[in-house]
Design a protein that fits this description.
The complex is a heterodimer. Chain A is α/β, with parallel strands linked by helices. Helices cover 37% and strands 24% of the residues of chain A. Chain A has a 6-stranded mixed β-sheet with strand order 6-7-8-3-9-10, sandwiched between helices. Chain A has a 4-stranded antiparallel β-sheet with strand order 2-1-4-5, with helices on one face. The two termini of chain A are 32 Å apart. Classes of the chains: A alpha/beta, B mainly alpha. Bound molecules: adenosine-5'-triphosphate (ATP) and magnesium ion. The site of adenosine-5'-triphosphate has 11 residues of chain A, from helix 1. Chain A: This is Urea transport system ATP-binding protein.
Chain lengths: 249, 376
């Protein structure tokens, strides 16, 4: 492969993590281009979530390298990785239930991240305008003053996506963003993702094949911590190995 | 659009501060004789700790069972200064080494230890009252929070620190006064703190400092940092992966709580006239958490009422039934946890405030019933 290609936004090489001898991710390599929407699929326990955990620093890798814009992420602290431009959505919606939608978005606004900065942070016109803009994108403009606890499951998923969008990351990683959504919500989310992908790269983990076909530039199929197949949706869907371990049932 | 949480004071907050100010600055001094007022002044020194706990525990979910350490450190700093002032060569002429504190002389010390020297200066002492607890909190905070120690483990470790400090103080009699503590304190820069007049002045100084701390606490809670603490309590990972260094916020709030506790400890020493290891250890540390829980761990004003009421009950009860107090305290804690998880402040917000606002037809109360649900 053309590993020196400077056009890659993210280069994952030989990534391995071992939990007490069990290799959840095993010598994994893949490359993500700018403005690409990469979808990772694979059976339960394949290591999909773990890959995202490794990239964003939540889990420490045993071996390998993760380069984002030529910076080694594995040596950085979680918050530094975020500031480098990598955003991460969790599999279960993680929003601040005791705070309003507005406050949830405000805490994610990329300013005042030090102790002093947080003490002196002012809710100025720019902040308000940006929050309003994001709220419109994620279909929550009428719920800004609602406590996040009272949102529906799908709305919480959107809110968390919005919390990432407001940081304008160059790489956005979404773990099962449509899980638990109604058909109508799924449609809206697909539309939302298509808009998001326009000016950034996205890695999405998803089980819903219809949804995957809708958004993916390329698909990586993960199985037992390794790449089973990679390529366009069409190619992957017709790969006999993939049909055997994943799509067949 | 009106967003109450961003304003430093809502109408409700102003009312709450005003009522508390009237009680502390006017009602209590008018209603109580000088002995009782001094007692309430002592209770209020615990309120400093309780307010700090509201920030750490209520807002940030960091339960410290070792706040007595910081209260004690502040108190000891003040006691060291007062003791040095009381130990003039003239006052201590009968000692084998005049001019050093009496307990040092009894323990065969012949010179003042070097680390006591700076406490000859009131200016140094006043800084130390805040700085020493903060530095301790900083060391504990960095060691624990950088390693991501939290929850029950953190609580137990802080408790261990309370035990260790008590043992150290008791063991190092010659340097610390041992189990008796530092007693027989007399004057502050020549001003006799034992007189009724002095005690009254100290009561007001104490109350003023408490309000200063309350204002700082209010500012912190209403800042973005306050909302971050709530967010961290519920979804620490989400905060971390939104680009915040979570540990630094925990360290900050823990140090702030320690600073408040240190001031409270120093004011205790001044008003009560001694400092001893019984105020530092595990039991007082847990009692301080109970003051906070009874008042309502989410409410800084509630914490003040909690400290006042529980201590007042303690004094009244242990005057008549000393053996019942510990039982009562335990029962109270269980009741608060099981029935009123948000303490007095919760009872007020849920039952009294809506009725009050109904009475006055105002919009102050109802909309602001408890903003935060308790964290686990
Ligand atoms: N911290 C950990 N300690 C031990 N084992 C772990 C840890 N995290 C994940 N695993 C294991 O690693 C494997 C991969 O888990 P992972 O959550 O990445 O799967 P996944 O592909 O996201 O599955 P799903 O589709 O169910 O979300 C699983 O067998 C899991 O039990
Ligand atoms: Mg997963």
């Amino acid at each position: 492969m053309n590993m020196q290609n400077p056009n890659f936004l993210l280069m994952v090489e030989g990534l391995t993590v071992s939990f007490d001898g069990f290799k959840a991710v095993n010598d994994l390599s893949f490359y993500v281009e700018p403005n690409e929407c990469r979808v990772i699929i694979g059976p339960n326990g394949a290591g999909k979530t773990t890959v995202l955990d490794l990239i964003c620093g939540r889990t420490k890798a045993t071996a390998g390298s993760v380069k984002f814009k030529d910076k080694e992420l594995l040596a950085m602290r979680e918050d530094q990785i975020v500031h480098a431009g990598v955003g991460r959505k969790f599999q279960t919606p993680s929003v601040y239930e005791d705070l309003t939608v507005f406050e949830n978005l405000e805490l994610s606004y990329p300013k005042g991240h030090s102790v002093f900065g947080a003490l002196t942070f002012r809710r100025d016109a720019n902040v308000k305008a940006r929050i309003k803009e994001i709220a419109e994108t994620i279909f929550l403009e009428d719920l800004l003053d609602e406590k996040a606890a009272y949102l529906s499951h799908g709305q919480k998923q959107w809110l968390e996506i919005g919390m990432l969008l407001i940081q304008d990351p160059e790489l956005l990683m979404l773990d099962e963003p449509v899980a638990g959504m109604s058909v109508a919500e799924r449609k809206k989310t697909a539309e939302l993702l298509r808009r998001i992908v326009e000016d950034r790269s996205v890695i999405v983990i998803e089980h819903d094949m219809g949804f995957v076909a809708d958004i993916a530039t390329r698909v990586t199929v993960l199985h037992q911590g390794k790449t089973l197949s990679e390529g366009s949706m069409e190619r992957v869907q017709n790969d006999p190995k993939v049909i055997e371990v994943y799509l067949g049932h | 659009m009106e967003r109450s949480s961003n304003r430093l004071f809502t109408t409700q907050d102003i009312l709450g501060f005003a009522v508390l100010a009237v009680i502390i600055f006017i009602v209590l001094p008018m209603a109580l004789d000088s002995f009782r007022l001094n007692l309430f002044g002592k209770y209020l020194t615990y309120a400093f700790v309780a307010v700090g706990l509201v920030l750490c525990w209520g807002a940030g979910g960091i339960l410290s069972l070792g706040q007595g350490v910081f209260f004690g450190l502040g108190g000891y700093c003040m006691a060291m200064f007062l003791k040095l002032e009381a130990s003039t060569p003239k006052n201590t002429a009968i000692q084998s080494t005049p001019g050093i504190p009496d307990f040092m002389d009894w323990n065969q010390l012949t010179a003042l230890p070097w680390w006591w020297e700076p406490f000859n200066s009131l200016f140094f002492t006043m800084i130390a009252v805040v700085a020493v607890p903060v530095v301790f909190a900083l060391i504990i905070g960095v060691a624990m929070f950088r390693r991501r120690v939290g929850g029950v483990y953190f609580a137990i470790i802080t408790q261990a620190f309370a035990a260790i400090l008590t043992i150290l103080i008791i063991g190092q009699q010659g340097f610390t006064g041992g189990v008796n503590g530092i007693t027989d304190l007399r004057t502050l820069h020549g001003w006799d703190i034992r007189t009724n007049d002095a005690k009254e002045v100290l009561y007001f100084v104490n109350a003023g400092l408490l309000f200063a701390c309350l204002l700082i606490a209010q500012f912190v809670r209403k800042s973005k940092l306050g909302r971050l603490l709530i967010a961290m309590r519920d979804q620490e990972d989400r905060v971390r992966f939104s680009g915040y260094d979570v540990a630094s916020f925990k360290i900050f709030i823990f140090c702030l709580g320690a600073a408040f506790a240190g001031i409270g400890g120093a004011m205790f020493t001044l008003q009560v006239g001694f400092m001893s290891p019984t105020l530092v250890g595990i039991v007082p540390s847990i009692e301080m958490v109970i003051f906070c829980a009874v008042g309502g761990r989410l409410s800084i004003l509630g914490a003040v009422y909690g400290a006042l009421l529980v201590n007042w009950a303690k004094t009244s009860l242990s005057e008549s039934f000393p053996e019942l107090w510990l039982l009562g305290l335990g029962g109270l804690f269980i009741a608060v946890v099981m029935v009123f998880p948000n303490g007095l402040a919760g009872v007020y917000a849920e039952h009294i405030a809506p009725r009050l606002s109904g009475l006055f037809g105002g919009k102050t109360g109802a909309a602001k019933s408890p903003k935060e649900t308790p964290a686990e």
